[in-house]
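Encode chain A's predicted structure.
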Amino acid sequence: MLRVIGLMSGTSLDGVDAALIETDGVRVGGFGPRLTLAYDDALRADLRALLDRAPALAPSCGAGDGLLARCTAALTRAHAEAVAALGTPADLIGFHGQTILHRPREGLTWQIGDAAALARATGIAVVHDFRSKDVAAGGEGAPLVPVFHAALLGPVAAPVAVLNLGGVANLTLIGPGEMLVACDTGPGNALLDDWVFRHSGARFDADGALAAAGQAAPAVLARLLAHPYFARPAPKSLDRLDFAAFAGESGLAALSPANGAATLAAFTAGAVAATMLPVRPARWFVTGGGRHNPALMAALRQALAVPVDAVEALGWDGDALEAQCFAFLAARSRAGLPLSYPATTGVRAPMPGGVLTLP
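Encoded structure for chain A:
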């Protein structure tokens, strides 16, 4: 077993999650410390600006762009600080980096972060660039968490789903035998976070208070759920901003802050319920920051009409799960094992991935 630190900075742009696990990439032998290191306001603002500029930068990979260089350096420093703050020895680091653009149908997925600088700063070998090989082979490049969910859950008698409510929401469907299906379902917290920030300056809807104070607008919600993405079967994936313009055309902007928040919470839940799957899960377990939002959880329970619980019901740590996953994937990459499969990303055959950088 290796001692591996996983580092994850998701599309919510809130900070770095770091977690240590003991694993050989097949089994998880134990869990070590974990922490979250929040981005400062300047880095968060720079990353949000970079998301908007990324499509124009992509053809040249942003060569010479000052904002990109500043973000990459600051982001890498934040990850090195997270490793130092974790304060535990490790054999390997799994470094996801920050996704700034994800367009797999164009053969493009872009995560920033300087793996060589991170390896030098920590003195630990780093596995990074987890998604590119899958996309180059015709896959969606996301989600990559299913193999970790399956390893933690073990054999199941009935289909269950693990739903990650990050900036984008994604699910893993685990069923009898070796059934493993995955996809992005639609917006997770991203649209709601952006709405709340625009109307109040807050980074997210704390305790779901704003959404709980409003009522979803049926006509706007229907227009949102009519997006063609929901007619596509799994596997499929999204960029954080894929629904931003569409939401603006739906009539959402005319709603009050509370009703808009309620509508977006209902949209996140409705998108999950609308996802085309080979079988319907009998139970859902929710991870990611969205599970802390009572309005989102209530909307999910209403939309899915089956038991919906936070992953803590399984004994998992929902605040560490994605970081733990990239530790697991780093060990799998080091062992040459697949990270993705035809039913999880649409790739033609089980696909290894990741790049190893030595200190």
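DSSP finds 13 helices and twelve strands in the chain.
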